[in-house]
Amino acid sequence: MNVRRVSNVTVRKRLIISLFIGLVVFGVISGRLAYVQLVQGHELSEKAADLWSRNIPFEAKRGEIRDRNGTPLATNVSAPSVLVVPRQVGDPNETAEKLAGVLNLDLQRAYELVTKKESIVRINPEGRKISNELANEVRLLQLDGVYIAEDNRRHYPFGKYLSHVLGFAGIDNQGLTGLELYYDEYLRGEEGHVSFYSDAKGRRMPNLADEYTPPLDGMNLTLTIDSNIQTIIERELDIAEATYNPDGAIAIAMNPNTGEVLGMSSRPDYDPGRFNEVPPEIYNQNKPVWSQYEPGSTFKIITLAAALEEGKVDLHNDHFHDPGSIEVAGHRLRCWKKGGHGSQTFLEVVQNSCNPGFVVLGERLGKQKLFDYIHDFGFGEKTGIDLQGEGKGILFNIDNVGPLEQATTAFGQGVSVTPIQQVAAVAAAVNGGYLYTPFLAKEWTDPDTGEVVSRTSPVMKKDVISEDTSAKIRDALEHVVAKGTGRGAFVDGYRVGGKTGTAQKAEGGRYLENNHIVSFIGFAPADDPQIVVYVAVDNPKETLQFGGIVAAPIVGNIIGDALPAMGVKKREKQIEKERMWNDEPILEVPDLIGRTIKDINQAYYELKLDVSGEGEEVVLQSPDPGTRVKAGSVVRIYMDDKTEENQ
User: Fold this and answer.
1) 297 among known catalytic residues
2) Nearest Cα residue to 266 out of 389, 99, 357, 144
3) Among 81, 291, 297, 519, which one carries the catalytic annotation?
4) Tell me: the pLDDT tens digits for 180-200?
5) For a FRET experiment, which of 406, 421, 441, 514 has its CA 20 to 30 Å from that of 384?
6) Which residues of the chain have pLDDT under 50?
7) Is the peptide bond before 268 cis (omega within 30 degrees of 0)?
8) 8 Å CB contact between 586 and 604
9) Angle between helices 92-103 and 107-114 (to 10 degrees)
10) Secondary structure class of 533 (helix, strand, coil)
11) Strand partners, 332
């Protein structure tokens, strides 16, 4: 028998081939293991963790919203939520019964929730964002599979205060209106959670520690709003609402030199914490930025600015005779004063808010120049304020503007604008000619460190008119308040300027009878404006519907209280008010120090005394001598004897 012997060379080759194949297989396996471990390891670990772990969410705190002085306007309160992991529930009947008792839950529904075929079940709404006391009652039950998740609920400590500006956040921590919506991305933060591990049947694995991922809280927002001014605005709108029962009311206060909104409110208002108790049309309509209506005579400021800048009028030397109307393109446009104002300088045209006089200014400008300035002052486009729902108004297409449209536009009829557009435009007219973007977000701060993350710088969009023109406008509008239709806004010592507005409301293409939006826009001090205030009252009842009667006094009250709160001192060289028969006279408080009660009474001052002390002579008085007050005001004096005082 022949035995074939395999040579050593062949054996060696086979061994080498086998070794090579083995190395290749080993390399492939090692490579795959390395890929799985190093490349896919994190992903696969997460998938495995997802299969075995259950997350109890911890809601992030929304960033607080504060006014410019640090006063909290929107904060958070703890509001825990009840969660159930059905597979961990030992006795569904007992668990359902106890939860139903504590949470005031229907027993059948409670049983359905604790036996639901889901990994985690929320008890909503009965167990969603409940009080801490109720959450502690659930904890004390010590029910298997029932957990308390740390949630928060938005809290608005001042109720209706600044409601349309702040807006509100929903139950899922999301902003729904106002600043809460506009800046939701920065305010809401990122959710955290506690993870626990369970077996395939959903039972908790006791030997594995829970993992905690903390939530990332939202950033805190500081507003340009000054709560001192906002409080004054809210007070005045409340009084206006009670006095006139209007269909609505609006107020805006702004720093004309930066565009910072210092206060903003409207009526009807609502409590953001109870928004579901009012119709959506109330909380969805922030009227200062959303409303669009004919401005009326407040718009004449723009026509005045254009005419002055273009050298089309000399307020003191040019004259105009107003017979009570003016004819344009076959239409008779009437002045508000029956019979007209007669012969006037154009300064008096402004003071008297004379429509025919402004028609003449519009004609001198021509439609192209007039509309160029209207656009330059920001009308016809959004201001860019950081709030949702801003309107841009409605202007005539210049190609369709004839003599009649040009004439009515010149005195504020036939066009629609928003309140915030008017405030920004008038601010530019009186601040030296600079049009700023209005804004509310002043700065963002880190919730943990308190460090400022970012600040908003004022944005100057356009240089519209010269400082010289602006100074002339300030002077003319100060005359309106001292001697013209805006006398109701006069504030002694603060040099207020402004303009009235009375606009008819249109419906179905026709103007309504005895239904006007009356307004006033004012600024102060006239030599260096620090605040612009706009107030509009929609259809005030049981009064003459004129801006000078209804809105001007409200603006005067706001400015008169706001400027001292801002630390602005009174001015000299104020134009003396031309008083009407029903105006209360203004007196200077006399120096009463050293005088007796008998001396004071014999002087017959039109003032009331509030006397304290037992002595013979006045040693202290308030207000100080020289202070200007209304006749009939109270002067407080303290009496003492000189001999006792010197001891």
Assistant:
1) yes
2) 389
3) 297
4) 999 999 999 887 766 655 555
5) 406
6) 1, 3, 48-52, 208-209, 644-647
7) yes
8) no
9) 130
10) strand
11) 327
